[in-house]
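Example complex used in Figure S2.
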Amino acid sequence: MKRTRGVFWCGLLLCLGLSSGAFSRTAEHSKFDALQGPFNTGPAVTKACLSCHNLAAHQVMKSVHWTWDKISPSTGKRLGKKIAANNFCGSPLSNEPRCTSCHAGYGWKDQSFDFTQQDHVDCLACHDTTGTYKKIATDAGHPLYEPREIPPGSGKIVQPPDLALIAQQVGKPGRNNCGACHFNGGGGDAVKHGDLDSSLIKPAKSLDVHMGVDGQSMVCADCHTFNDHQPSGSRYAVRASDPHGVDLPRDDHDRATCASCHGEMPHREGKLNDHTNRVACQSCHIPEFARGGIATKMLWDWSTAGKRGADGKPLFISDEHGHLIYSAEKGDFKYAQNVRPEYKWYNGIVNQIAITDKIDDSKILEINRVEGDANDPKARIWPFKVMHGKQPYDKVNKTLVVNHVFGKDDTAFWTNFDYAKAIQAGMDYAGLPYSGEFGFIETRMNWFITHMVAPKEKAVPCGECHTRSAQGRLAGLTDFYLPGRDAMRWLDVVGWTVVALAILGGLAHALARVAIARRNRRSS
Amino acid sequence: MSTERVMIYKRFERFWHWSQAILIIGMMITGFEIHGTYHLLGFGKAVELHTLFAWTVLTLWAFTIVWQFTTGEWRQYLPGLRNVDAMIRYYLSGIFHGGKHPFNKTALQKHNPLQRLAYLAFLALMGPLIWGSGLLYLFYNEWPKFGLDAYLALEWVAFVHVLGAFTITTFFFVHVYLTTTGPTLTSHIRSMITGYDDH
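Predicted assembly (723 residues):
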């Protein structure tokens, strides 16, 4: 009943177009005088938008898409891209013009960026519906304004987008808008998350049962609902479960959990519902990640970066699939597709390390340890992509470091391949203490697997967890009794011995009857 | 020897016996798969069937209990130690030498003294063991509602359930063998099918 009701309300919301954008407009943007252009720059478009939407920029400025700075709701710790550690590219600090091509703003090229300037907000990154608006990779969030040869020397001239045309056709964010950054996190398609890549732009239902264009064809924002330009859902504090359950029309408008539509008892079979207080939906319903045909990065080893080939030029090696497996700029890589996640208890608390934190370099560093165990009623078993990394750190101060990689100066690693200079420059830029002695530390990072939800027929079969096999999906989680996996083995030994004795006893008795009967017959 | 056909097992009793037999065999097969002993149907299917069989047996038992009391047949399970020694002597010795079975089935006394003890043990020991642990296992998620989680661990409930399963499995094999110990190899089974015992 609960299940039906939840899906009903969500269906109703979709029909009403409150979330999908499928409603008839009362305003035709292409007729607005303010949007006739021509626009020479992105900020000029923003000014035009704000001439009607006068609260929009203030709202965006409070959002993590703008601040890259966030207080974790579960730990109270200050995080956000500016300071949270990762084992991919490293820090945006000192590398801004490259990294901020994914900032929802224009011109964040160094620390002088004015976060209070309204026309620095980029409306089009999220609201372009033409698919022609592109923030250029190296221009601090700006699109092209003049034709440019990219990459330099290639002879390929890229034309700037028609900003007026784009401004006249703005709409609700679609998959392309979110995907432009979130599918390409870590520097390329599918690199970072494992469950987010460009295969989700036009997925089949078999890849994502919600987004499938042959099915519901939902978009990111149908679940990641926005309130005053604040997105719902956070990887610093993923909700382990959602006791709030089904969201009704007059509710908090936060639907970034499965339970928001499906409730907490979504199955027809009672025994399956008996799992929801211990197992996250994702653990069964996302059997593998990177299922869309695009490999995700599983290992990034910075320690080997900087090699040069026989020709003295920086070395780059690709594998037979065309994946870069060694880059002089970045080190060694490993990729994988259709990966079975790792499973861990998670209770809603992520211990995310900041680049300023003291670390323990005597063992592998877990950059964002998730908390929880079997005895914690808030904990659920969650699936993760566990990213393996090896990255530079300060051996004396015991902190991770800011590595200055991008830029045309003589300290940038990607230009000069000199770690000593690049780290010193990065730490100086960030204003952080640095001893001058760096080493490389092996790291792990947990990426919540929550997208690419398969159709229910493809859910993980019971026997892949409830099994004695050492290959069982939950073989590593040993702090609870799992039927089908665990048993008191001595009882099996005793039990089967007794059963065998009973059968053998019967057989012996029968044989004796036959033998004695035969002997008696012969003697008589 | 005069042949006299006596109705020993009434229609409902036979229906009960054979349907229970099928269900118990089904529960043994699915149960040991759930336990992880082998792979046959897949864990999910095995759980589904095991649960279905459990509810079916419970329903059957509900009818049977009413039947036992309304017909007075429950007295068939009253135990006693008289003549148990004669039965044991028969199985250990007499049976090999063509000795006469010390017990004659009648409608009033259809179980020999050893059977009475064995079936009472089935009803009073194995039954509660397997059903108590089985229902607790099935309703594991409801434990907190009744405060049971403070006293019980799934590990031990599973242990008792498996213990019960081994006991019943042993019972099953002995029971099947002992059906061959009648006047002829199949006479016990025949009377469980037809209801009649040929004296």
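Chain A touches chain B through 36 residues (CB under 8 Å). Residues 15-21 of chain A have pLDDT under 50 and may be disordered.
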